[in-house]
Amino acid sequence: MAISLSVVLLLLIVLVVMIRGGSIKAGPAVVAALFGFFLASSGLGPTITRVLNDIAAAVSRISF
């Protein structure tokens, strides 16, 4: 839960920066957000979550 909340906040910040910077307009941003919302509730949602969790676990094991 903590990872997905962090990812959501990070993506929200990126989205706001892109809208304010003029890279993306508000309309396409809303469409992209709705697409993500409906994709998460589809059959692919658990698979996407599992892949992202695996990537987060792999990144957390990297030591510098």
Short description:
The chain has 64 residues and is mostly helical. It contains 3 helices and no strands.
Written account of the structure:
There is one protein chain. This protein has 64 residues and is an all-alpha fold. The chain is built from three helices and no strands. The mean pLDDT is 83.
Keyword list:
single chain, 64 residues, mainly alpha
Parts with pLDDT < 50 across at least 5 consecutive residues = none
What is the overall number of helices? 3
> What distance separates the N and C termini?
26 Å
Morphology call: flat
Could you tell me the radius of gyration in angstroms?
14 Å
Mean pLDDT: 83
Number of strands: 0
Helix-strand makeup class? mainly alpha
Strand content: under 5%
Main sheet record:
none
Following the backbone from N to C, one meets helices and strands in this order, namely: HHH
Percent of residues in helical segments? over 70%
